[in-house]
Task: structure prediction
Amino acid sequence: MRAHRTGVIGLPLRLLAREVYDKIVAIKGPSVCALVTGEERIVPDRAAYWVCTVEAMPEMVADFVAIDEIQLCADPERGHVFTDRLLHKRGVQETLLMGAETMRPAIAELVPRAQFMKRERFSQ
Result:
């Protein structure tokens, strides 16, 4: 996301959003990074990078859009929000849908131009 002029990332958990926000603020500074969750809202006037829970992703145009844990489309309680983002939220330059391999067939059908990359998880 930082490689783009503007970006928004949707994450499944508030604490994960806070962790990513803190990392971006440490690199880019607090004046250009927003955090929006159901419980917290930090939106500076010059926000270019938005870190949010998926449910709190703003309706905005951004160069980069990412949605983490896209397989939550199948979740009975939250799936409708993830599915809406899968169908309607796109970055002008790049869109990244991250998640389990189980979503590949659905994404391939719904987003015919999607390119798939597989990266193994790393442990810390």
Notes: The helical segments are 14-28, 79-88, 104-110.
